[in-house]
Design brief:
It comes from Streptomyces chilikensis. This protein has nine helices and 24 strands. By secondary structure, it is an alpha/beta fold.
């Protein structure tokens, strides 16, 4: 495997590049053959995927004997590049505290695991410090390295703070929420907040007016309060089930309100730690791939290894790939990468491949308003794709027509 992630596993042997049937190669055109390809209309065995430059081309418009570099991938799957809405870091780097080079290392680590589009998430911090961080991340978004900024905290409930510093939490005052959004210079994509707090519903409404997604999370809201927030414009459940009251038959809480409303996309962390498979399947059955977004909620250790890390000001111990606060053992994000989430969703949770593709690519792309360019394998879209072997292990990654992980390498 050719990868920027030094901790990534080696890929199995794969077929060599073949010339076109006419014996000529074309560096500007790549044709992938022999795989099962997941298209918007379903899975097509043996379909050709044609890449011209950085875009996908219509295979019907490219003759079979046209000059091309041909990569034969028998027994494999080709799916759209993964889109992660919620990611705090990787490769030993934090998006909340790292330098530009460190942040890029984290982004490239996740690319090597199939995430061709990533929204960088921050954790709770001092408001002025978060504003400075937003400015740094906005430059990377303007350069096309990330797809924008997600603020998770500080506008969350101390009752459901998870791995966020309680001393730095604040009520979601609309003026302060606006300050953070404006610091991102048009690159803010989402703000997670507890809408039951003072100013919460007003902030949800304001975010909608600013074109920023309001996400309900780290919340102690009741069912009724959650419904009010959805009516005000909240459209995402931040890692559903986690950091919110459990579903009850007399007090259904936010989980029920978020699952039952067709306007809400629910994030799920499928790492085998955050959710029982039954809870994950329940969400999929109720919302379907069209309303589920598989996320990592990854922190620095993703693609890097066990050890002691910082998440904001809090110390985190990662042992056997599970991140927990050093003080009390609270789960502190994940070390998940989306290729592992895909593999688990299909092989452990038993979900249909097409639903997993929707949840890991099409749905988050649509939520971000990027579905005209990414999220599915259609002519004219960016050539972002992932090659998986027959057991759904990562084999190759292409971003904008260039191999990040080359399936031709041993």
């Amino acid at each position: 495997m050719t990868s920027t992630d030094p901790g990534a596993p080696e890929a199995p042997h794969s077929p060599a590049v073949l010339p076109s049937p006419g014996g000529r190669a074309d560096a500007s055109r790549t044709v992938l053959t022999g795989a099962r390809v997941v298209l918007p209309g379903g899975t097509v065995p043996g379909a050709r995927v044609v890449v011209e430059g950085d875009r996908l081309a219509d295979p019907a418009a490219v003759p079979a004997d046209a000059p091309a570099t041909v990569v034969d991938l028998p027994g494999c799957w080709i799916v759209p590049g993964f889109v992660d809405l919620h990611n705090h870091g990787g490769g030993g780097a934090s998006f909340s505290s790292g330098t530009v080079e460190e942040i890029l290392r984290g982004v490239r680590t996740h690319r090597a695991h199939g995430t061709t589009t990533l929204v960088a998430s921050t954790v709770t911090g001092d408001l002025d410090g978060l504003a400075v961080r937003a400015g740094m991340l906005s430059e990377l978004a303007e350069d096309g390295e990330i797809a924008g900024v997600h603020f998770e905290g500080p506008f969350i409930s101390p009752c459901r703070k998870g791995a966020h510093s309680e001393a730095l939490l604040r009520h979601p005052d609309p003026a302060e929420v606006r300050k953070l959004v404006e610091a991102a210079r048009g690159q803010a994509r989402m703000v997670t907040l507890a809408a039951e707090l003072p100013g919460g519903v007003d902030s949800v409404r304001m975010l909608g007016e600013m074109g920023v997604i309001a996400a309900i999370g780290h919340t102690d809201a009741t069912y009724e309060q959650t419904v009010e927030a959805i009516e005000a414009g909240a459209r995402v459940a931040t890692h559903l089930f986690n950091a919110m009251p459990p579903l009850g038959h007399r007090a259904p809480g936010p989980v029920t309100a978020l699952l039952e409303d067709e306007r809400v996309t629910v994030e799920l962390i499928d790492d085998g730690v955050h959710l029982h498979p039954g809870a994950l399947r329940l969400a999929f059955r109720h919302a379907g791939g069209g309303r589920v977004a598989l996320i990592t909620d990854a922190m620095d250790a993703a693609g890097f290894g066990d050890g002691r890390y910082l998440l904001g000001p809090l110390e985190v111990d990662v042992v056997d790939g599970v991140a927990r606060l050093a003080g009390d053992g609270t789960i502190a994000g994940s070390t998940l990468t989306l290729d592992r989430a895909f593999h688990r969703a299909v092989t452990v949770d038993g979900l249909p491949v097409e639903e997993v593709v929707a949840a890991i690519s099409a749905t988050p792309a649509r939520l971000l308003g990027l579905d005209g360019r990414i999220g599915s394998l259609e002519p004219g879209k960016d050539a972002d794709l992932v090659v998986l072997d027959g057991e759904f292990a990562l084999r190759g990654v292409m971003r904008k027509g260039a191999w990040v992980v080359d399936p031709r390498q041993d």
